[in-house]
Amino acid sequence: MSRAYGWTADGSVDSVEADELRDMAEWIVGGGSGKSLVARLNADGVRTVSGKPWSAPVIKRALTNPRIAGKQVTKDGALVDNPNVEPILDERLWKRVCDRYADPDRQQFVSRRANSEPWLLSGMVRCGHCGGPMYPHWNGNYKTVSARCGQVVIQQKPMLREVVEQVLARVTSPMWLDALAAAEDNGADHYRAVIDMSEERTAAIMVDYGAGRIDKSVADSAVAAAAKVKAEAEQKIAEIGFATGLPARPTADDVIAWWEAARERDRRALVQVVVDSVTVTKPEDADSLPDRVRITWK
Ligand SMILES: [Zn+2]
């Protein structure tokens, strides 16, 4: 018998996994879909006890099992305390999770909600204290973004406003628009060829290293250089992909008009094209809320 996610083999609570389960429960209670939760867990590399990716049915089973609230169902169908299990969710939250899964209108509700209130920065926000991921905290209409370490919390709306302002400032700057125009002139095929060449280069380096013609430090730095060229070419392809929704040689006004008319998923795609990560620092480490938000550009 394998152990259940959230508890160690001896039945005590595994604090890291228990935190993960509480986050999952809050996501579901806040109206998040199982599918979006799976995407988030996969993006963060969170795995089940058997090392597999999570799926929506497995999440549902884990979150609705009475065990997670320290309960069990008797032969007569009564819900009673399970003296052998330390609870992970409090009973109230667990019941809300079960209600959410039992609600037949849930799917419709979730997709409406997902369209009106998407989270543009999924998987991108890092805690300035510990470097861990930060998540929107779903208090019904997720008002904060919180780190699991508990050291860093920020209000969601002003934080998002700051990120969007910085993203738009970047993609409307003459430097960025010129680089985009140059990339378009080269075309995606050019960058695909660059990627092929850097992959061939890496293979050739490994052959030389295997044959003893170069030593490890030379091979490592040559492989790193080829990887950098490849990453830059992939970034250019992503930028060209974004530009397909814009007029040729877009101006700053074109980009702003595009943003205002864009669907949320297209906005999110643009953010992903330019933003590598967003780090949020503690309030005491900055003079103002915008200063707490630091973007690492791609
Ligand atoms: Zn932290």
Characterize this entry briefly.
By secondary structure, the chain is mainly α. It is built from ten helices and eight strands.
Write down the Rg: 24 Å
Structural domains: how many: 2
- Runs in which pLDDT lies below 50 for 5 or more consecutive residues are 107-117
Most strands sheet: 3 strands, mixed
Strand arrangement in the largest pleated sheet: 3-7-8
User: In whole angstroms, how far apart are the ends?
Assistant: 45 Å
Tell me which ligands are bound: zinc ion
Spatial shape: globular
Percent of sequence in beta strands: 5-15%
Q: Supply the number of helical segments.
A: 10
Topology as a string of helices (H) and strands (E): HHHEEHHEEEEHHHHHEE
Instruction: Classify the secondary structure makeup into a structural class.
Output: mainly alpha
Q: Which range best describes the helical content: under 10%, 10-25%, 25-40%, 40-55%, 55-70% or over 70%?
A: 40-55%
